[in-house]
Write a structure and sequence with these properties.
Layout (H helix, E strand, L loop, with lengths): L10 E4 L5 E4 L1 H8 L3 H31 L34
Antiparallel strand pairs: 1-2
């Protein structure tokens, strides 16, 4: 029986001292994801954020459906019969000012 062939493919990475060293692909994966939780937790958090945003949008849509619509033209404000109202401008005398 022949022994299984083990891949000898290596990846060169730079060490902190500037000299390249050989690292197997399995070791590179272990360095990138030291535990399964390190890969699963960010995905799960992202999924929860997306689900929360979907829930918030759906809730907002339901809330908008419950609100009354815009007023129809008969309910719009109208000018008074006397015409438009104008601002009044005058200069007050110092003794007209209220004292606190």
């Amino acid at each position: 029986m022949t022994p299984p062939i083990i891949s000898t493919a290596t990846t060169l990475t730079a060490s902190p001292f500037g000299t390249p060293r050989a690292v197997s692909p399995l070791a590179a994966t272990q360095i990138a994801f030291p535990t399964v939780a390190a890969a699963v937790v960010p995905f799960a958090v992202g999924l929860l954020v997306v689900l929360g945003l979907i829930w918030a949008v759906r809730r907002g849509i339901r809330a908008r459906r419950g609100e009354p619509g815009p007023p129809d033209p008969a309910e719009q404000p109208r000018l008074p019969a006397t015409g438009p109202v104008h601002e009044e401008q005058r200069t007050r005398e110092p003794d007209d000012d209220p004292r606190a």
